[in-house]
Every structure is written in structure tokens, then in C-alpha cells.
Amino acid sequence: MIMVSDNFKFKRGFKTESENKAESFRKALNIIPHEPLPAISLADYLGLSIFTPSDIFKECSEALFELNLSNEWSALTLPCQSGKSIIIHNGRHSKPRQESNLMHELAHNICGHMTSNQSTLNGIDLLLREYNEEQEKEAEWLGGCLQLPRKALLWAINQKMNEREIAEYYNASLVMVKFRLNITGVKYQVNNWNSKNFKKC
């Protein structure tokens, strides 16, 4: 999983908008701002169905069997004739990795990133997104934000939760927790606040 680098420049307001979306989706689903937002609940709210290859393909070809066993892919969105889309994800990844994969793909859908490129994955013809750096970075950022918004991280730190406990509580990888704590400045903010209060004592 590639994390957004510090030097990537998002369009103005995107990061704030992402935090607002993370909060508004929780509000719509009657979830407290600092509580976990399960990807499956968000997908259902957005009208997207989630499957693994073994769920959706009834006739098992050799190519599908290999795809189902492969760890080399994460998730993809497939448009359907009905006008709706479905998400197929790799059920062989760890639960935290699956959650991250799904949030990333949901972020693509929320941002309106379109599939446009006919490609082949393990011998199966699929309509995939052409690689677009800006879109991938947006999906990485929004996906991480949906899973671990700033308000949730502040709450968790104030609850004296360590990184491993945060990861377990939000069904996130330890790598994702460390990244979000650092990139959002939450760790610095809490340490700075504690330092100021310590000096007053």
C-alpha cells in the first residue's frame, strides 16, 4: 500500500473536504464522529455491493481460480448494465488490508473517478481505471480519512489508546495508523498540548 507523500499537492480544500465527508457519512449513518465507519456500511449507503471473486463468478474458470488465489490485486469497481456498480475485492488479504482496500475503492466512487480502460487481470477482461496520479492520491487520502478521520484519532489519543489499540479498534493496519497520526499532525498537536500543560504545573 503506497501512502501519499508529503510533497504531493492536492487541489485547494481537498483535505478539509475529506474530513467533512468522513464526518457527514457517519452522521448520515447515525455513527458518532469518532466511531469506526465500516466500509460495508458505507458501501450499502452509497448503493454499492461488495463481492469477492468467489462470490460473484458462478462458473469457475482457471483464470478466475487464479484471480481468487492471487495477492497481487486489491479491489476494483465494475460498472453494471443497470447503471449501478459493484466492488470486487481480494478476500485473501488481512481484514485491516481489506478494509483499507474497500475504503480506497469507495473513495474513488465518492470522488467520481470513472472507469475507462479495458484491461486484463489474470486472463479476465475488465473495465478498469487508467492510472491517474491525482485520482490515486485523492483516493488514498480520502480512503484513509474515511477510516481514520482526524477527530477519531484525537479522541483515541485522548483515551490513552496506543497505536496498536487504535488499529484494532478501527480495523486498520498499524502502518495506516502511524501514517494518519503523522500526516494529520495529531501526534504533534497532542504532544504540544501536553507539553504546554506540563509547564503550567
What does this 3D model show about the protein?
By secondary structure, the protein is mainly alpha-helical. It has one domain (15-194). It contains ten helices and five strands. The chain has helices spanning 14-28, 39-46, 53-56, 62-69, 95-111, 133-147, 150-158, 163-169, 174-183, 186-200, and strands spanning 49-51, 75-79, 85-89, 117-121, 124-128. The strands form two sheets. A three-stranded mixed beta sheet has the order 1-3-2. Strands 4-5 form a two-stranded antiparallel ribbon. Strand 4 (117-121) and strand 5 (124-128) form a beta hairpin. Helix 5 (95-111) crosses helix 6. The relative contact order is 0.15.
Name its key features.
11% strand; 10 helices; 201 residues; 3-stranded mixed β-sheet; mainly alpha; two-stranded antiparallel sheet; 5 strands
